[in-house]
Each structure stands twice: as C-alpha cells, then as structure tokens.
Design a protein that fits this description.
The protein is an alpha+beta fold and 170 residues long. 21% of the residues lie in helices and 39% in strands. It contains two helices and ten strands; from the N terminus they run ααββββββββββ. The protein has a five-stranded mixed β-barrel with strand order 3-4-7-10-9. Strands 1-2 form a two-stranded antiparallel ribbon. The longest helix is centred in the N-terminal third of the chain and has 21 residues. It is elongated, with a radius of gyration of 22 Å.
C-alpha cells in the first residue's frame, strides 16, 4: 500500500515538473529569438570566430531581409534570364523543389530577366540557415541546380531586382 502511494506521488510530481519545464519558454519567445539570430547576419567559420557580413548594402534599396517574392531551383541560365523550378512549402515553412533531373511541369517553372541593375549575392548558410554570411556576386556565380531567392521589380514582375543564391554548409 505504501509503495502505491509513493508511486502516485512520484508520478504526479513528474507530470507537474514536465508541464512546468515545457511551458517555461513560450512559442512566441522562441520565434523572437530565432528572428533575432537571423537578423544578426553572422557566420561561424572553422576557427569558431564570429564575423559580421562583408556585404555593403544600401539598406533603403535592399530587401534581402524580407521574404523573397519567388524561390526555387535553377533549371537553366540564359544570356539575360534564368529559368527556375518554383519551390512549394509544406508544413512549417519547409521548402521543397523538384529533384535534380526530375520532370518539371510548365506551370511550376518561372522565367526571370536579369537586368544590369539586378543585385546578386551568395548567402553561405550555417546551422540550417540560423547563421549566414552574404557576399556580393555576379551572374557567373549562379549555377544550374542552385537554390535561389528572387525579389522582383515592382513595376515589372518578370525582372529580378535582387537574387540570393543559397549555399548550405554543415
């Protein structure tokens, strides 16, 4: 009888502790801290030092901190345009793109013009994108099969204002 009583007390105490510890950090505070890490724009290199990004961006004209208008995998690169397989999202912002070599339906493709004013950067991502380093780049840095984000011109949705090439590192 005593064992049963002690077992009930331990069980209730365990449930209470699990409930309290699980509620100590709210979902909103987790999202806020995640956003703060994304906005810090730092990179951790192999020597474990943290450096600020080297990209000199005009904050008024750049919108690289905002969600891109279009994301996807590069299918082909022309002289002044690129064709991408548009990404789709499942669940909690999990981006999916057609696999390399898979057939892509025309409705899932998008052609985007690259103009002389298009800003291109390469974003080296670490820790699943929580930390990153941006570097200025050119059209030659965009390769087939790259994952990219595109911000389009407001007056011409077929032209890219900014292009970000995502490179995920371990």
């Amino acid at each position: 009888m005593k064992c049963r009583h002690i077992f009930k007390i331990i069980l209730i105490t365990s449930i209470l502790l699990i409930t309290i510890s699980g509620c100590s950090v709210s979902n909103k505070s987790r999202q806020d801290s995640s956003s703060a890490v994304n906005k810090s724009n730092v990179q951790q290199d192999s020597s474990s030092t943290v450096n600020k990004s080297n990209v000199q961006q005009d904050k008024e004209s750049s919108n690289l901190e905002e969600k891109p208008d279009l994301e996807g995998r590069v299918l082909s690169i022309g002289e002044n345009e690129i064709t991408i397989a548009k990404a789709s999202y499942k669940g909690n912002n999990i981006m999916t793109c057609p696999k390399k070599g898979a057939e892509v339906k025309p409705k899932d493709m998008e052609k985007i013009k690259i103009t002389g004013t298009t800003k291109i950067i390469v974003r080296n991502c670490y820790n699943n994108g929580l930390k990153y380093e941006d570097k200025a780049a050119g059209k030659e840095d965009i390769k087939e099969e790259d994952l990219i984000g595109i911000w389009v011109e407001k007056n011409d949705e077929d032209s890219a204002k900014d292009i970000c090439v995502y490179i995920f590192n371990k």
